[in-house]
Amino acid sequence: MTTSQVINPATEKVVATFESADVAATDAAIERAHRAAPGWRDMAPGDRARLLRRFAEAVDADLENLARLEVANAGHTIGNARWEAGNVRDVLHYSAGLPERLLGSQIPVAGGIDITFHEPLGVVGIIVPWNFPMPIAAWGFGPALAAGNTVVLKPAELTPLTALRLGELALAAGLPEHVFQVVSGRGSVVGQRFVTHPAVRKVVFTGSTEVGKQIMAGCAEQVKRVTLELGGKSANIVFADADLDKAAATAPYAVFDNAGQDCCARSRILVQRSVFDRFLELLEPAVRGVRVGDPADEATEMGPLISAAHRERVAGFLEPSTKVAFTGTRPEGPGFWFPPTVVLPAGPTDRVLTEEVFGPVVAVLPFTDEADAIRIANDSEYGLSGSIWTSDVGRALRVTRAVEAGNLSVNSHSSVRYWTPFGGFKQSGLGRELGPDAARAFTETKNVFIATDQ
Ligand code: NAP
Ligand code: MG
């Protein structure tokens, strides 16, 4: 064990210290989870459901505390942080409805009956990034626990505080010991051990595509199950027949929310050429109007970036030759601030168009017609989310079917609801989280034939 520090990104002050697990501590946690698995698996479905409901209620009772922890640890605005803690509660309540509904099939066969079971996997390892520490954790552990698995959870080293608190709340709510453990530590140590330890039967990873590929390759060694939620470079496509005022007023929030540190950020705005100039005119006041500042202030809409190193990485996308159309504001003084920034890319290979910035930087570019919009939107290795703005319902349907992405919205920017499926096409990921099938992703289907012939 070594001790690590947690820094408040809005003040640059140390807010807490925590213990970083080494390989031995990680192995011990995995082995405890492995021993706890049969008891949890064999518990009556209704009892497992009741405990998850109690866990949800404990989160709800602690909602303001969890939200304040996230403001201090991740610099999230207080409004967002409350939504995030509420999302954990809701995912748990929804998951609590799953144990009694994990239905198998009865399939017609000759000479007997054939039935299927959805068996839990055993220990599930969940690796969480720093951008949405609470929701991303819950999207994994809610359904994994509901399906009868035990969970070891690794938060990002930068943002362990809410995960550690959720671990305490689970115990206080009555979950048996070692059914849900939070193991804080480095990705290359704790996360890597989830990949290599044979008792961990599935890894759920959210983070960079680069590390996601390593996790997938590592899991191949044991044919370990894996769900990956990786990067994005999502398109916000605005057609000339759209409600331009609404499209321009909402576009900043679709990319600058959480300071752009969102895998679903609509970081490419594609605008039909005939309304391109008009759209930029409408976008400018909307971007300048984004309230950037103290995340604890109820009126704030955008906080700081997560760390000094990340701010440097984001700034690296703006080269001296980069054409910046306009920017929003940022506070002076301590904190890892970066203003909302609108860029006009130089050409289709400009890094700001091809790479995930993961900061408040958006590229705006024109397209000619529907086919051109689809071509540009799909000209990316990613395929996570996107938005289509048009008043033509036929076009909305044609374009949503043609865009290669897992989560699309029409005349809006919503990507995530706990009861609808979420995940990426192409290099944005593998598998789906949330929605009615969430628990199935944490099971193996077992087929059993029972002979009835004498
Ligand atoms: P990252 O390295 O992919 O980290 C994500 C999580 O994986 C963290 O918990 C990290 O641990 C862990 N990890 C790192 N290396 C690992 C390994 N070899 N084995 C197992 N686990 C490992 O992401 P990042 O470095 O924080 O961010 C880099 C970029 O990734 C961002 O700028 C952004 O473009 C992208 N990103 C995307 C998402 C998303 O939601 N899709 C989220 C975060 C980042 P520690 O950090 O604690 O060591
Ligand atoms: Mg990393």
Automatic annotation (TrEMBL):
Q: Cross-referenced Pfam families, in alphabetical order?
A: Aldedh
Keywords assigned = Oxidoreductase
Q: Where does the record place the Aldehyde dehydrogenase domain? A: 4-448
Please report the name of this protein according to its UniProt entry.
Aldehyde dehydrogenase
The entry sums up its family as follows: Belongs to the aldehyde dehydrogenase family.
GO MF, any single term: oxidoreductase activity, acting on the aldehyde or oxo group of donors, NAD or NADP as acceptor
Q: Identify the catalytic residues.
A: E229
The cross-references to InterPro entries, in alphabetical order and at most eight, read: Ald_DH/histidinol_DH, Ald_DH_C, Ald_DH_CS_CYS, Ald_DH_CS_GLU, Ald_DH_N, Aldehyde_DH_dom
Q: What is the organism field in this record?
A: Nocardia uniformis
